[in-house]
Amino acid sequence: MAKMIVSFSVVPIGTGSPSVSKYVQRATQILRQKGYRYKTGAGFTDVELDDYSQLADLLQAIEKALTDMGAQRILYTIKIDRRLDKELHIDEKIAKAEATAERP
């Protein structure tokens, strides 16, 4: 029962390379391992969560993985869409936005 959609970006710094794809791939692997519903975009990943403790757990797991890979600093950008009255789903939000965009 997802009550929040979190859009986040994690940027590792101090890796010695401008490329971040292997770090993004590792973060995505963690999302899959934890069984979260998510969608990765060009700059952010959206994930369906139930509460803030899941978000904290997810960020801690990603941080550990990236520092294990050599990142010396990590910048996080996080946006939270929190509903208290009903469930939220990424696909439904995208479908509504695209349907609205198609109207004349």
From TrEMBL:
Family: Belongs to the UPF0045 family.
InterPro entries hit by this protein: MTH1187/YkoF-like, Thiamine_BP, UPF0045_domain
Record-level GO cellular component terms: cytosol
SUPFAM superfamilies on file: MTH1187/YkoF-like (SSF89957)
Organismal lineage: Archaea, Thermoproteota, Thermoprotei, Thermoproteales, Thermoproteaceae
Name this protein carries in UniProt: Thiamine-binding protein domain-containing protein
Pfam families reported for this sequence: Thiamine_BP
Species whose genome carries this gene: Pyrobaculum calidifontis (strain DSM 21063 / JCM 11548 / VA1)
Residue stretches making up the Thiamine-binding protein domain: 6-97
